[in-house]
Amino acid sequence: MKALFFNKPGIENLIFSDYQLPDIRDDEILVETKCTSVNPIDYYTVTGIHGVNGPAMKINPYPHIAGSEIAGTIKSKGERVNNTIREGDRVIIYNRVFDGICKYCKNNHQMLCENGGMIGISRNGGFAEYVIVPQQNIIKIPDGLDWELACGLPIAGLTAYNAIQESRLKSEEKLVVFGGSGNTGLFCTQIGKLIDAITISLSSKPWIKEYGADYVLPIDENLREKILEITNGTMADVVINSLGENTWAKGMDIVGKLGRIITFGVLTGGNLFIDGRLLYNKQITIKGTTGGSVEGLLNLIEMTKEQSIRTKIWKRYSLEDSKIAIEKIFDKNREGRIIIENY
Ligand SMILES: NC(=O)c1ccc[n+]([C@@H]2O[C@H](COP(=O)([O-])OP(=O)(O)OC[C@H]3O[C@@H](n4cnc5c(N)ncnc54)[C@H](OP(=O)(O)O)[C@@H]3O)[C@@H](O)[C@H]2O)c1
Ligand SMILES: [Zn+2]
């Protein structure tokens, strides 16, 4: 098959060429990729800086195919695979590898599995014509869900869904999302709106209003004043901050009493300074989340089917051009998602 792969870390080491597809095992499924989204994690995997701000996962195998957020159709399956999975089924791939038996998996926290990994890192991913995955990672998608939206659900969608769930956001509460135009940011705002929260998206991109943001504000010296005004002085109930170091103090500042700050990423660095006085005087809760569970992904699919969640695509690339797609992920002018289409 054709694939984009690398033998050692570095964008410059990516090669688009033939890749020998191994035989599938009894409990595995061969998926023909239709749409693979590009996320920061793919850039970190390829450049070898994955884990700089946290535990690193070993890249396996080499030569390696990255690409962690994938939608496609079932091409073939191993002998022990369940009858409900059939050739031609449209699926998305739950991107966390998990054993299903450890204490975290048993409690529906597959993303924290003791023996876990990630498709695109600890196994080959989706920047290829085909990807082989364990059957438990296969999630069918409804007919009405198009490829472009579906392929954003396993990472960006699910991470946002889990973060909002864990924040216990309620109707009428004020939600502030840092990195509002980003992959996760756009889902956070839309999911927040479905809960009937007042959504404040921090970004320089005004079009987020079309995606459920009641307010779009730049991160500048006037931010505190503007949040004070919008919230009538009570400040934010929930702050989602995946940007980390450079914006952390602002997040602590604009969260109100009994507020919750959720982080699942540290795009600008991982040293998060916490002013203890703010923490206790406002009784703030700070919580980390990562990805989400299989059940969460199923719930998100239902939500997406029934409600008006949308995606915004900035650029579409062919598989052959997926190297350019990865290079563009941190482009300052990016206005929405970057995807690889293979259909
Ligand atoms: N733990 C997990 O499971 C998980 C899952 C997904 C993502 N993440 C992490 O979460 C973070 C966000 O992911 P994402 O996919 O949403 O990323 P993304 O699509 O790149 O979005 C980040 C957004 O942040 C803003 N931004 C970028 N650089 C900035 C800077 N230096 N200062 C201020 N704002 C900046 C930009 O929005 P504006 O132009 O609108 O300001 C950008 O669109 C990343 O670190 C990623 O690795 C973790
Ligand atoms: Zn487990």
Automatic annotation (TrEMBL):
Keywords: Oxidoreductase. GO terms for biological process: protein tetramerization. It holds the Pfam family ADH_zinc_N. GO terms for molecular function: adenyl nucleotide binding; anion binding; oxidoreductase activity. Residues 10-340 form the Enoyl reductase (ER) domain. This is Putative NAD-dependent alcohol dehydrogenase. It comes from Candidatus Nitrosocosmicus arcticus.
